[in-house]
Predict the structure.
Amino acid sequence: MIGKICGTGSYVPEHFLDNDDLARLVDTSDEWIRERTGVVRRHIIEDDTTVSMAVKASRAALEDSGVDPKELDLILVSTFTSEVLLPCTACEVQRELGAVNAAGFDLNAACTGFLFAYNTAQAYIASGMYRTILVIGAESLSNTVNWKDRGTCILFGDGAGAAVLRAEEGTLYQPVTHSDGGKGNALTCMSRHRKDWLPDEQDTDSYMKMDGQAVFKFAVKKVPEAVLEVLSKAGRTADEVDYFVLHQANQRIVEAVAKRLQQDISKFPMNMQEYGNTSSASIPILLDELNRKGTLKKGDRLVLSGFGAGLSWGAAFLEW
Ligand code: ACO
C-alpha cells in the first residue's frame, strides 16, 4: 500500500509586499532581489493565522479529493511558525474541519517539513496503521522574520498548502530523508519561550538568522544528490521524470539543480516570484497550482525535494 495524492489545496493571504515595499523598509532594491532570488512579491498575513491558513488550504484539498473530513485517520501539520503550541496546530485544524475520527500532530523540519510529513504519512499508510491522511504545510514566516535584516526579510512569505493521501495498491513511491545537526548554526530561530527572552527587538535571536551563502552552497550540492539517490532507489533516471517540484527558496538554486541534473528548466516549475519562500508550505502550494492548472496528468512521474534548517533535506519519487 502507498498513499496516493487524491486532492490538493492551498491558501495565501490577499495582502502582499512587493520588492519596492521592502526597499522602503531596508537598504535593498527590486533589481537586487529579483536578480539574486527571483522573488517579486510575498503574501503576508493580516487577519489570518497559521491555523486559519491551514484550515482554508485543507478545505480546498478535501473538496478537490472528494474525501469527507470524517474519513480522515490522521492530520499531520508541518510548521515552525504557528501561533499556538498547545493545542497543536493539527488539533486546531481537526476541530475546524470536524474531522472527528482523525488523530493529529505537528512536525517541525523547517523548509523540509512538508517533504518529511509526506514521507511520514506514507510510512503510516505502508504500515497499515492509517488509510487516509491530510498532510499540511502552513507558515506565518512574517512573525519570525527580522524586518530590519535585509539578508532574510526579502526572502520569506506566508501561506499554506495541503494534500490528501489515500491508501492504494501498486503505485510508485520512494523516499530519502537526511539531517545534519552539526551544521544547524547556518539557519536558526530561538524559541520565545526561553528564560532569557526579551519581549522587544533587542532579542534578535528570536528572529530567523541565516548564513545565506552556506545554505545556498548546501542546497545546490545536497538537493541534486538527494534527487539522484531517490531515483536510484526507484530504478529510474532523471530523464524519466516529468516534473521536479522543489522547495521554492531561490530561483538560482532551482536553476543550479536543473543544471547539475542536466535537465531542462521547463521540468522545474517555479512560483517563488509570487510567494517568496513559504518554507514548508512551498511544495504543497506549488503542487496545488500544478494540479489546478491541469499541468499534472495521471501517471506523471514527479520528484519532490525539500531542504532547509536542521540542516535537513530529502526527496520523494512518486507517480501522480
Ligand atoms: N539587498 C541588497 N544587498 C544585499 C541584500 C539585499 N536584500 N542582502 C544582502 N546584500 C548584500 C550583502 O550585504 C553583500 O554585500 P557585500 O558584498 O558588500 O558584503 C552582498 O549583497 C552579497 O551578499 P551575499 O549574502 O553573498 O548574497 P547572495 O548572492 O549569497 O544572496 C541570498 C543572498 C539571496 C540570501 C542567498 O544566499 C540565498 O538564497 N541563500 C539560500 C537561502 C535559502 O535557500 N534558505 C532556505 C532555507 S529557509 C528555512 O529552512 C526556513
Summary: The longest strand covers residues 2-11. The first helix runs from residue 19 to 23. The mean pLDDT is 96.
